[in-house]
Description:
The chain has 153 residues and is α+β, with helices and mostly antiparallel strands. 30% of the residues lie in helices and 33% in strands. The protein contains 2 helices and 9 strands.
Amino acid sequence: xxxxxxxxxxxxxxxxxxxxxxxxxxxxxxxxxxxxxxxxxxxxxxxxxxxxxxxxxxxxxxxxxxxxxxxxxxxxxxxxxxxxxxxxxxxxxxxxxxxxxxxxxxxxxxxxxxxxxxxxxxxxxxxxxxxxxxxxxxxxxxxxxxxxxxxxx
Length: 153
């Protein structure tokens, strides 16, 4: 009986190590920008290996916003200052328009100019709201002081 309990504990411990190792691996993968598309003050960034947590997504943007501006000229504010940058998972790559629920880019020639809609992060700025980060379960705002707070729903 004691040996079987030890084996069960060992199996649980090893399973936990595998799960934690996988989560660590996911969090340490570098983000790969596959492509950038845009119209006006709206930009779409297609990525692979995007961070999982809200904090890591926001940190990624804050760390990389200057490089994104320099390399891809995003964000592209409108004359009145507003902009939106949407981050999409690239998934299985470009696909044909299914006529239903794919995001298609007008700056590419069909037929392979669409992706599955798997948006993971939105960065937006308006003079009224300031800088806002939208994730699956809510919104965060950056105060003038640089502090980031989660909006209450």
